[in-house]
Structures are given as structure tokens and as C-alpha cells.
Amino acid sequence: xxxxxxxxxxxxKRRNTKxxxxxxxxxxxxxxxxxxxxxxxxxMKKKWETALRIGKPISPAMRVCSHHFQASNYxxxxxxxxxxxxxx
Length: 88
What we know:
Blueprint: E1 35-37, H1 42-51, E2 63-65, E3 74-76, E4 82-84
Antiparallel strand pairs: 1-2, 3-4
């Protein structure tokens, strides 16, 4: 007896959930792209929000892709390859 209503197992595809929250940016987690969380400092966070024209409240999961930063914003670090430093 064939049961069409029983779902067949689907291969478990790992979905990359990282994406850029900047309006009009459609970047998803690709190799070579880094994603940055908003600063914890409230003043710096507000500056990022204004500069990037984010029109909604910032959530802890929101990230900004490396396309929105200049190479001069990254500095070598011994623990990580590079560290993002933004001084606005």
C-alpha cells in the first residue's frame, strides 16, 4: 500500500543564516566575507546605525558584512587574523 501523504526524508541541508542587515545589501555568508556584530557601546552603536541607515531597532543577531568597511578599518592581530576597528 503506497501512502503519498507520508513525507519522505529530505537530505538535511545546512543553511547559512548569516546575512547583512544593511538596507539594499543582499550579502549572505560567503567565503571571503566577514560579518560583524554591532558594538556594545551605545554611542558607537548609534553611530553605526546612523551611518548605515538602519531603520529598525538593532537586535543581537544583526550583522554587517565586510563590504561596508574599508581595508584601513582592519588591523592585524595575533589572536585573530584581523580585527575591525572603527573610530567615528
